[in-house]
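Our consortium's second objective concerns turning raw sequence data into structural hypotheses that experimental partners can test. To show how far this objective has progressed, the report includes one record in full. It was chosen at random from the queue rather than selected for favorable results. The single chain below, 385 residues long, was entered without modification.
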Amino acid sequence: MASPNRVSTREGERLFQDILYQTTDLGALSISIWGSLGSGKSTLLRTLAESIRCNDPVSGEDQLMTVLWRCHDIDIWNSFNKDAAYLFIYEDDYKYVKFRTDKIRALTKKDLPKIITYTTNQDLYSKLVKGGINCIFEPQRYELSRFMKRVIAKRGADSKLLKDGVKVESSVWWIEFAVWLLRNKGMDFFAIILDEFDEMLSSGVGGIPWHCAHIWRDFLRVSRKQNVCTIMCAHQIKDVNPVILSKVLVNIYLKGAHTAPKSLIDTTAPITIRRGLGFIERDAWGLFKFDKLDMADKVITLFDFPPEDDDFDFLDDDDIDVEDNINEYLSKNKKMPKNICELKNGKVTMDWDVIDELFKEKYATKELKKVKDGVKDLNKKKKRK
């Protein structure tokens, strides 16, 4: 088993310093951080975001790297120095956003970093603050752009996967922007920090996510020479699509993590280390340490989209009597197709299997759109009364 001896500590600190200061000689690093809940992942990510530096290939000067931080609905970005951090929100989402702390305290603009809205990839790129921590919310109602469809199509994807209106996770936008960035940036260094990375590219998926994993693998292969450092963080290796793992140059294991197959570090070694220590592995392996930081209250972000602008969800609205409204609408529309009206003898009950069949599997039909619109109208009339 690996142990914290003098040699491994010296090697670990060397490898960690190679992350904190990157040059074109070594190239930008792709880094994965693994650790269980409470292992210090957030502290380490903040340390990297605030400290990572580079040798600018144009000016030759040492400077802070430009950081792109993926924001989550519960996040620590409010712990960054407000003079160094900037909050980016997609323009169409901005009017719906609300912030509060995990202590249930509402946040106002004076509590937050400077907020900047963006519209397109080019618009966002032009507004990024060089040397700053650019905290970015992806478009919350993201759909595959023509650019991303072309990227996926080049991998031989079935055209049915790329039809208009196909639903994808909003996190796919980060894959689109990263690929776009490689094609449009100069020689400046960037660091993309992606916490909860398994949300983006989880293991055991097919369809568009499968193609996205291979696109991300190709991105990691090229990004080193294009001066884009990528830092990905998750609980365990098994949670992430394995296709990308061969392109990760540096693995960091915090408390509770299991090491990768063929790792130089014993698979159970990180389980017992204390918080504030980590195993690091690249061309060698070792231990490094990082300090505890004072954190502000975590920020909880809510995008409060109105029903008419969002997917209408019968099962997630306390003001709608699902069963009564659906049956009332169906009873007034006897000409509805049999495949809808004869579900359980023409009566829709609060049976999850039936609800799934009616509103998910067959959601795209014109008849079901009529049902959806009809129930919404009924609900509005009842509210007015």
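The partners drew two points from this record. The domain at 6-302 is CATH 3.40.50.300 (Rossmann fold). The chain is about 30% helix and 20% strand. Both points have been shared with the crystallography group to help prioritize constructs.
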